[in-house]
Amino acid sequence: MCGIVGYVGPRDCSDVLVSALTKLEYRGYDYAGIAVFENGKIEVAKSKGRLSDLVAKMEKEGKPKGHAGIGHTRWATHGEPSDVNSHPHSGRRVTIVHNGIIENYKDIKKFLIENDRTEFLSDTDTEVVAQLLDFYYDGNPIRCIRKVLHEIRGSFALGIVFADRPETVYAVRCESPLIVGQGPGEAFIASDVPAIIKYTKDYYLLEYGEIAVLKNGSVSFCDFHGRMVEKELKTADFDEDSAEKGGFEHFMIKEIHEQPTAVKTTITPRIEDGLPNLSECGITKETLKSFNNIFIVACGTAMHAGMVGKYVIEKLARVSVTVDIASEFRYRDPLLNTDDLVIIISQSGETADSKAVLNLVKEKGAKTLAIVNVKGSSIAREADMVIYTHAGPEIAVASTKAYMVQLSVMYLLAFEMAFAKGKITEEKCRRLTSELQKTPEVIEKAIGLSYNCQYISTKLITADSLLYIGRGLDYALSMEGSLKLKEISYIHSESYAAGELKHGTISLITEGMPVIAVATQTSLLEKTISNIKEVKARGAMTIVICDDEAEFDDEVADHIIRIPKISEMLMPMVATVPMQLLAYYTSVNKGNDVDKPRNLAKSVTVE
Ligand code: F6R
């Protein structure tokens, strides 16, 4: 829910911290701040609001000048967004930035107050940790950090500077992700690789329970017991361009355009001789045959990809699939057996609820498969098997390309499982796989419909509320269309199974209310059209998304978006595109901050 950065090296530290934070702002944008050693003293600059507010403040009041420091951008968790609650937070001799939650901060605060430490300025859990570090500090930073780590509970990562250790940055990881970048004569910390890719592609992945010390441009590591740790230097497989807007106005539209390549990069290495082959992900045919029940658990958009997965796996492989929201699944004492498979889908691989589900499922002995985009993320590392999606960094808060590649993996998995279980013939498996290989081209064509979607979005901007409807796979898909629209346009939107409308929801329809009907399933077209007629008759403004061969009475639709046709089962990968474009252009037309919608953050590492 927030981004941490740190730097030690010859460059202007404030500039490096701000530049790195710009790439992490998608993680939270309620406030930002930096702390830099200037002439041996820690100088702090911080502000509520966007990073641009902090930059404006520093332009007016002057920025800290130095070569070592830490920085932070945050989604508010404790106390309202305000200058005082902004990170960094300080004790007398210690200043820190923090990602995550300290669960027992109230107990620690009580302990500190009982010991005459009463100078708390903010409402945050972070300040309590800064004060505790200061309380225990005896001139040995590592000893002090270790002592504090044994007392605080929660999921967190910290960047720390001690006033009497100039030009040195300490970093700690406990759950929340943190990487340590290494360039010639300089070192960085960051919550995510794109933040530092401009400076270096080489990085160490800090593991749970490790501490890094950045000094004189080099890095050393130890564990929470103080034992030195040797780590492997990794190299990022993307460059600065992929973390930039590349000429597009927003990351979201850039990422929509990246979808054909992302799908190609995700599926191509997993297709061999015309058939899906997930063995490089540790998934054999034998394994796929062995599961009796499948659970797909995820949050938000990732859960919606799971809904499409359910339809496809059940239809082809004839295995029962239950899709669940991670925050519900973890508390409902699910019935799990050791021959069940639990699939966790997550772009970030760090979502708190999804991670908790993984731990729960492992305790119960069921097998776990992670479908994750961010390499080396917690969920990816802890699951029994992992299929990485290759979408590249997704920066816009509203997920687009990550969803698309999650869909592509759902199909590959369904095809291979169905074949392994003998539910489809080799010939059918080949045919389906070959169709999937054609999707990048068709998605490209669908992106070409931008103009039509841009026009139709002008009809949505005045709406207070709208409905997305569909049947079968179109219903699964409409859930994502509805989420995308509401999260960035701020128009209230619900998705409904088209056949369910008349059981209550149809009473919401008033004159001119937009209803977007997804009608790409030829076998269900007639039924969906009947439902469209029902809402049209009650005054709805109907927008129909269908394939370019669908035949029906055009009068039922006020607006039609015709997309290229491929096999019915794969239509979600094409129909997703106009839904993304409708959401994008509605948000743009309303003048909203498309990439950073209000109240949201990209990586939800708190419950
Ligand atoms: C919506 C969106 C969220 C995420 C959800 C899960 O556009 O991005 O709904 O899908 O927070 O995040 P991950 O996939 O990182 O677990």
Structural notes for this entry:
The chain has 607 residues and is α/β, with parallel strands linked by helices. It has three domains: 2-245, Glutamine Phosphoribosylpyrophosphate, subunit 1, domain 1, CATH 3.60.20; 252-427, Rossmann fold (3-Layer(aba) Sandwich), CATH 3.40.50.10490; 447-589, Glucose-6-phosphate isomerase like protein, domain 1 (Rossmann fold). 35% of the residues lie in helices and 24% in strands. It contains 18 helices and 26 strands. The strands form five sheets. The chain has an eight-stranded antiparallel β-sheet, covered by helices on one side. Strands 5-6-7-8-12-13 form a six-stranded antiparallel β-sheet. A five-stranded parallel β-sheet has the order 18-17-19-20-21, sandwiched between helices. A hairpin with a 2-residue loop joins strand 9 and strand 10 (186-190). Helix 4 (125-136) packs across helix 5 (141-149), helix 7 (259-267) packs antiparallel against helix 14 and helix 14 runs parallel beside helix 18. The longest helix has 22 residues, at 426-447. It is globular, with a radius of gyration of 25 Å. Bound molecules: fructose -6-phosphate (F6R). Fructose -6-phosphate is lined by residues 299-302, 346-348, 351, 354, 398-399, 487, 603-604.
